[in-house]
Write a structure and sequence with these properties.
Order of helices and strands: HEEHEHEEHHEEH
Number of strands: 7
Shape: globular
Largest sheet: 5 strands, mixed
Distance between the termini: 48 Å
Structural class: alpha/beta
Helix content: 40-55%
Number of helices: 6
Radius of gyration: 17 Å
Strand content: 15-25%
């Protein structure tokens, strides 16, 4: 692991551990296929979160055509308390509940486990797709990336299926915009 990534992880973990005594909130590390989760959340919350994240990861890989062995090793920091997340993040992160760093080189995603909602879900989806596409090593044009982000953000994703264009008519709206511009 490069020194810059180790230093960043050290600072984040130091903040997580200093937020409360270690015996009150143990930090867990879970190794998954392509990523490592570091969290002070309960085992139950980590398992539920990893299940959802893994579903998004597999969907992103299908869309981008990236194999497991191509994924850059990702570190996920899952903060159980919003206040701990905010204490470690730069200004501007408070609205997102998600912070992504170096997704095309040394990927780290930090998440606030307490915040929920559509905006956070979209930011998590964006971060996952950026990580997966950055792992491919293919330089994509911005307009292709934006289109993929829009479709991935609007997709209905289950364990075995990705349905595009069904969520709030986003794909239909996008196609309508293209027709008006033509």
């Amino acid at each position: 692991m490069p020194a810059s990534r180790l230093f960043f992880l050290f600072l984040l973990l130091k903040g997580m551990l200093n937020a409360a005594p270690l015996e009150e909130r143990p930090t867990r590390m879970v190794e998954m296929e392509g990523y490592t989760v570091i969290s002070d959340a309960t085992d139950r919350k980590i398992v539920a979160w990893v299940k959802d994240f893994d579903r998004l990861r597999r969907a992103g890989q299908r869309i981008a055509g990236v194999r497991d062995d191509q994924l850059l090793p990702l570190t996920l920091l899952l903060f159980s308390r919003r206040s701990d997340f905010l204490a470690m993040m730069p200004p501007g992160s408070e609205q997102l509940g998600v912070l992504s760093v170096g997704l095309t080189q040394q990927p780290i995603i930090a998440l606030d486990a307490e915040t929920n909602g559509e905006a956070k879900d979209l930011n998590v989806r964006f971060s996952v797709l950026m990580w997966v596409m950055g792992s491919s090593g293919v330089p994509y044009d911005r307009w292709i990336l934006q289109g993929l982000y829009d479709m991935f953000g609007a997709a209905q994703i289950s364990d075995d299926r990705i349905v595009l264009g069904k969520k709030q008519g986003v794909l239909t709206d996008m196609l309508g915009d293209l027709r008006r511009q033509a």
